[in-house]
Amino acid sequence: MMLLSVNIGRPRPNPWKRLGATGIDKRPVEGPVAVSAPGPKGTGEVGLAGDRVYDVKNHGGADQAVYAHAREDLDGWEAELGRPLPNGVFGENLTTVGLDVNGALIGERWRIGPDVVLEVSCPRIPCATFQGRLERDGWLGLFTGAARPGAYLRVVEPGDIRAGDPVEIVHRPGHGVTVALAFRALTREPELLPRLLAADALPGEDMDLVRRRTGASDRPGEPGRLTGGG
After folding, report:
1. What is the distance of C-alpha 56 from the center of its chain?
2. What pLDDT is stored for residue 221 in this prediction?
3. Residue 158 · residue 50 · CB < 8 Å
4. Residue 3's beta-bridge partner residues?
5. Alpha carbons 37 and 127: distance in angstroms, whole number
6. pLDDT tens-digit profile of 35-53?
7. Is 2 exposed, middle or buried (0-12, 13-18, 19+ CB in 10 A)?
8. Residues 152, 73: Cα–Cα separation, whole Å
């Protein structure tokens, strides 16, 4: 299990959500990249130095500090779409190999290189910016149906990472709630939502949504995060 690439966003216009700019256009970079815990959502800050998000309502902050996607999944999409998909094309910061990103458990921890520890927090939810980026009609439905969303991670221990660093799973919770299961529950299969109650490492806004929709909480509030941004 290792990092194939570390990818940093290049700002570009975002005609798909009228946000002015998007950081979804991520490209591999050479050398070490500093990783640290960002500030709260709403600032545009993320976990990798030199990167940021522009849809500050739906992205960034501690629970979405880093986004990882498996090269094996990109290869599968290459075959299905009939086009090359370079590392970073899905907007991922980390392109991995040998690591079951979608089978990772919510709250699972990865050590990357000698210093950095990241914790799996939630699945990526696709959005209009992602649809525009792929330039494929029906892409959101296709991506959602496949339930291979990749994972957002929070920063537990900061440090530097670079392409070629080994990835080691150093902690796995016992609840069995995977990234793929959480994604299915939060999108097309709400009957799975009660299973997410065991995953206490889910972001607070997602857990609030689960509790409301399952009757586990009577607290009022705005709907949880069911859409993403670029």
Report:
1. 15
2. 43
3. no
4. 96
5. 24
6. 999 989 999 999 999 999 9
7. middle
8. 16
Short-list 107, 125, 128, CA closest to 117: 107
Q: Report mean pLDDT in 10-residue bins for the chain, 230 residues.
A: 96 82 94 95 95 91 98 97 97 98 98 98 95 92 97 98 98 98 97 97 96 76 42
Answer whether 84's CB lies under 8 Å from 67's CB: no
| 121 Cβ contact partners less than 8 Å away, ≥ 6 residues apart | 63, 64, 106, 151, 152, 153, 154, 201, 202, 203
Q: How far apart are CA 81 and CA 135, in angstroms?
A: 11
| Global model pTM greater than 0.90 | yes
User: What sign has the CA pseudo-torsion 205, 210, 211, 213?
Assistant: positive
DSSP 59: S
Mean pLDDT of the chain: 92
What is the rounded end-to-end Cα distance, in angstroms, of the chain? Answer: 27
**Residue 79, class by beta-carbon neighbours within 10 Å (0-12 exposed, 13-18 middle, 19+ buried)?**
exposed
* Tokens representing residue 80 in the block: 């299905």
Query: How far are the Cα atoms of 106, 111, 198 from residue 171, in angstroms, in the given order?
Result: 11, 9, 16
Q: Cα-flanking dihedrals φ and ψ of residue 76, to 5°?
A: -65, -40
User: Which residues partner with 125 through β-bridges?
Assistant: none
Pairing relationship of beta strands 94-97 and 109-112 according to DSSP bridges: unpaired
Distance CA(79)–CA(75), nearest Å, equals 6
* Contact criterion met (CB below 8 Å) for 123 and 225: no
Residue 44 and residue 87 in contact, taking contact as beta carbons nearer than 8 Å: no
